[in-house]
User: Fold this.
Amino acid sequence: MEWTTIITSLIAAVLGGGGRGAIFYRKENKRAKQAETELSLADGWRKLAEAKQARIDKLEDTIEAKDNKIEELYVEIGQLRNDKDHLSASVAALRVYKCVKAGCAERMPPFGSDAEFDATTAKMMQ
Assistant:
């Protein structure tokens, strides 16, 4: 055999095997890139889901705080209504006992001068 034939066949064998290797390497490289892309997409979706969950938690906390404030205000409104009702009753009772002519014997209404009125209970005390 000639040297040129031997060298040519060696070059063809090396390049032929390298070509097959390049094809396998390209397929592996493609799979690796595809897996990396899928991993980065999954990571992006995970981060998005975590951000949304954090926002949901924050909003739920805000809603809970506002609900508690509303409940406190309802309690305060109830207490203020009771106070208002009590004061309205006291005013009505005091109007009955209001003196039209004070400081004389013709006191109207005709309660004695020793009688006192308790505004907290809306009753006359002797």
DSSP finds one helix and two strands in the chain. The longest strand covers residues 116-118.
